[in-house]
Amino acid sequence: MPVGGLLPLFSSPAGSGLGGGLGGGLGGGGRKGSGPSAFRLTEKFVLLLVFSAFITLCFGAIFFLPDSSKLLSGVLFHSSPALQSATEHKPGPGGRAEDAAEARARRGEEGAPGDPAVPLEDNLARIRENHERALREAKDTLQKLPEEIQRDILLEKEKVAQNQLRDKAAFRGLPPVDFVPPIGAVGRVPADAAICKKREKIKEMMKHAWYNYKHYAWGLNELKPVSKEGHSSSLFGSIKGATIVDALDTLFIMEMKEEFEEAKSWVEENLDFNVNAEVSVFEVNIRFVGGLLSAYYLSGEEIFREKAVELGVKLLPAFHTPSGIPWALLNIKSGIGRNWPWASGGSSILAEFGTLHLEFIHLSHLSGNPIFAEKVMNIRTVLNNLQKPQGLYPNYLNPSSGQWGQYHVSVGGLGDSFYEYLLKAWLMSDKTDLEAKKMYFDAVQAIETHLIRKSSRGLTYIAEWKGGLLEHKMGHLTCFAGGMFALGADDAPKGRTQHYLQLGAEIARTCHESYNRTFVKLGPEAFRFDGGVEAIATRQNEKYYILRPEVVETYMYMWRLTHDPKYRKWAWEAVEALEKHCRVTGGYSGLRDVYLRQDSYDDVQQSFFLAETLKYLYLIFSDDDLLPLEHWIFNTEAHLLPILSTNRKEVGVDE
Ligand code: DMJ
């Protein structure tokens, strides 16, 4: 859908520019971080340039292959289904290993390099072409004199500075908006006394988390509840106060008024984006932009709208790439961006650039400036112009070439919230964004065909797809998908509503099993369906639990949409487990191993525990009049965005 169609209120379109920085460094979408460097920016730039040219020269061929040797063997020597199932997994009923040739014949599939369905010569020709281009670029770079490189850097910096000036110029003051009181921002007290008591307990947990943060780590990003001191994640660079901003809307809906006011004062006086900070664009967007927007829509306090737009403007340089696919990391002072060094061939990550849409549409809505919406609508255009292997979206996309990186597909880490945002873009547009709806249901169809399997003992799970081969592992992160399938069920293609509700219920059950099969009754980071196990983590580095929300998130949607009491029961089990195993005197801590009998605290109280886990739990024990799903969309950090109603003007931008 064109931006104009989504945003009828805008009067002054602003252009976008080119620019950007170089890939390199260290970090990771919510779970890995970048460290400070001793080098000055220019030196760092030159080093990175030379280093990347060298790497490209040496390993160009490897980089531009769509996947590992495993996939290569899939491209060059199509594996037989028998062999594949024997070595990769034991498919249960409905879990048949897919033969590429058969699949091709059955569906008349589209292709791309690495896609087994594309003729071998085409694949090789494209790989060769990519390889040669990379070599040419690397050679050009190496032939440059140091002065030339220096000049290029200065030009690049100038370009970035100009772009930033232009972006800022578009935001001299925000237009007045009519704030419409939110619907269901506080609900009635549940009539059932037992439910009421449980809800109160969850509010008490929020108080415990909040007061300990306030006491030991006020103004810092997160709390170390065992050490009783602040915890700083490099995801936010030197931006501070992640827990405060993430907690604002939870404080509001729990009617913790004084605490909300003190958080608001902190935002007014201390939340500062004029810092030299390299941040994760995705994390800052979902937690800070999302948290501020949500606080604005609930309270009507202008400070939150101003701060959200101010931060949105700071993030715009991330889109200054040849394709407009944003960088993962951005220095919000210099405007220089780059990607995670571990990401395939310098790619941006699907779940990161695909999880900006909801917030950016609202930023345009509240600022009266279409630039934000244009940026995210361009991401759509790029995605729609690309061929998708088997209809699936790979996790990696190179922002320079606009082409896919490795053919890895996941509904968990690296992919997850991209799918969530397609569905929610449709719902948030008051069901006018038909393009989002189509993309969502097409993607879900492909996911069902290629990734969803049933274990031999009847547990439905979502596996990961690597160039056509399945890894029979499901992440805790993937558990959000149960709620997503159920939330989209109403608008499913004809006759499929029940099917999607059922699928949501099956995923909820599997994720509950992953909790139930541990000692602490909280689930591991990832669990497997191979080697004779089902819904159990087998690798030591997958046994941790970091207070994540996805399982209770799915319970919340399933409860709201079915009112099956088992979801309240399961949610209460999670509350009891959190109290027993994660609560310490200084707050709540994650665990290093959920199968261990003794405490294994990781000593971090994640900000999303207050933003998401406790909010979803509270909603499960509230009546449906609190934040009704017909009026609100939860961003991927559980922050609230109102549906942009086409009938009723929720927010009017004066023109
Ligand atoms: C949160 O920041 C968000 O839910 C994100 O989508 C995924 N990771 C964490 C919670 O696990």
Outline the structure in words.
It comes from Molossus molossus (Pallas' mastiff bat). The active site is at residues 283, 416, 525, 550. Involved in the maturation of Asn-linked oligosaccharides. Progressively trim alpha-1,2-linked mannose residues from Man(9)GlcNAc(2) to produce Man(5)GlcNAc(2). The protein is mainly alpha-helical and 655 residues long. The chain has a 3-stranded antiparallel β-sheet with strand order 4-5-6. A 3-stranded antiparallel β-sheet has the order 9-12-13, with no helix packed on it. Helix 20 runs parallel beside helix 22 (607-620). It has a domain at 201-642: Glycosyltransferase (Alpha/alpha barrel), CATH 1.50.10. The chain binds 1-deoxymannojirimycin (DMJ). The site of 1-deoxymannojirimycin has 10 residues, from helix 22.
Query: What is the first-to-last residue Cα distance?
Result: 23 Å
Q: How much strand?
A: 5-15%
Give the count of helical stretches: 22
Q: Can you tell me the overall shape? A: globular
Q: In which order are the strands of the major sheet placed?
A: 4-5-6
List the bound ligands: 1-deoxymannojirimycin
